[in-house]
Recover the amino acids of this structure.
């Protein structure tokens, strides 16, 4: 059974940093591109970042470029999102997503709250 | 950036009725890269349709997708109580963008 379990969310002050992790199981992690998608409270879905299966290519939404860094450790079956210079508008539930025939598996999400 | 517009914003229907949801793109999207998701309160989205018309694993056949170019449709042939939710379309042909969603609620 495919499972994606995010962790690392929490309350952080504006300008602060946070690292999200996503532990994957039930599939060959190194065969799949992985994405982060976020959802601000009461709003829709927004693509954040993605990484190729071997980690060699990374992509970012303009809204997070230069502040967030996506990475992966295929030996640990884990995806990461290092978030810096956090702003109020970054507050959201962050989902780890597997890309195969669109976004076929989603984690349960981890909440990032940005407030002083 | 390709912008997706969904209509209507809210669809109020009764169980057993047919639901027709629209997704329109600001420029042409390859059908291979148009997907639909369902999201219930407090849950992660779930993939329903990929490639504009292919049902994801485990999705009942009352869900169907169609369309091409800039106009796509998700149809739920007969609404079941568990189908009342928010539905999002997504294109992943040119970067990745989602529509704002259509809420299907109980009339």
């Amino acid at each position: 059974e495919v499972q994606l379990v995010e962790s690392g969310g929490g309350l952080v002050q504006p300008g602060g940093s946070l690292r999200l992790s996503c532990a994957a199981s039930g599939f060959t992690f190194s065969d799949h591109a992985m994405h982060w998608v976020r959802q601000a409270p009461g709003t829709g879905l927004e693509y954040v970042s993605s990484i190729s299966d071997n980690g060699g290519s990374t992509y970012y939404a303009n809204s997070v470029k230069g502040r967030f860094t996506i990475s992966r450790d295929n030996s640990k079956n884990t995806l990461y999102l290092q978030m810096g210079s956090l702003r109020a508008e970054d507050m959201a539930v962050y989902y780890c997503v597997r890309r195969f025939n669109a976004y076929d598996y989603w984690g349960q999400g981890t909440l990032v709250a940005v407030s002083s | 950036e390709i912008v997706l517009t969904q209509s209507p914003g809210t669809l109020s229907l009764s169980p057993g009725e047919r639901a027709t949801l629209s997704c329109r793109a600001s420029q042409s999207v390859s059908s291979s890269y148009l997907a639909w998701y369902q999201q219930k309160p407090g849950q992660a989205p779930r993939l329903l349709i990929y490639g504009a018309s292919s049902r994801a694993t485990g999705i009942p056949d009352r869900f169907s997708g169609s369309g091409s170019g800039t106009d796509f449709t998700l149809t739920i042939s007969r609404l079941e109580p568990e189908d009342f939710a928010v539905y999002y379309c997504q294109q992943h042909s040119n970067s990745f963008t989602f529509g704002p969603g259509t809420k299907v609620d109980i009339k």
User: Anything to note?
Assistant: Residues 6 and 64 of chain A are 19 Å apart (CA to CA). Chain A touches chain B at residues 35, 44-47, 50, 59, 95, 99, 101-109 (CB under 8 Å). Chain A is about 0% helix and 55% strand.
